[in-house]
Amino acid sequence: MKTSSNFHFQVGEFKLIALSDGAFPVSKDFFFANTPQDMIEHIPDQFHAPLNFLLIDTGKQKILIDAGFGEEHLPTGGHLLRQLQQEGIKAEDIQTIVITHGHLDHIGGLSRNGNPVFSNAEHLITAEEWNYWSERPETMESRTLAPLKDHITFVQSGCHICPGISVNHTPGHTEGHLTVSIESQGTRLLAASDILNDPVTLSHPASYIAAELDPEKGMETRQSFLQQAYTQSAQIFACHYPFPGLGKVKKSEGQWTWMPLEN
Description:
alpha+beta; eight-stranded mixed beta sheet; seven-stranded mixed beta sheet
């Protein structure tokens, strides 16, 4: 069910909402590094990439996967708090936040004026990711994360947030990048974060967003992630795919293709 820029769906007993934070302007060269030109010739040199984020309501806790750019990036981005408010959810209602990685389009909404936005939430991140940005205090990413230091819990691959929801260390895009696995009543969803850039490049996994720290490792991670989703017949939630970012992958003659959720 779609309401404004929110999309409601379920994974077993869990209620989920895909939230649009808006979009952000990018160049084709940045978003599609190492990509055959004939694959992306239809895409403008400058365009707006979608920003999709996920709220999970387990019935006992509300879990948010990343928090978008933050309201200082309005009007194109920074819509996430407004989208939550449309659902009657306030920032203080969120108990857990998974920080998949430290790029600003995922963490910008986590702090404002030196204070955590989600003041009651435990923020989960890998030590690798936290340390990477902490060692770069001159960056906006480090300054955005610093106010969260008393709200941080370090997690490792396979850590369960609660029964049925776990995080997986999937390095490449960044050193400590996380994906999230959700399983309930025989239904699965994998939240990809920035492992994937656009459906058009699924058949060319060597394509990557230019901010990727280790493209070779990123390609290995991407292939493994897609194979896992395919083997498990899991839905995929992709941050930068067209809203609501939901679908499955199929494999034909060794090539991946995207089957978007019919909504």
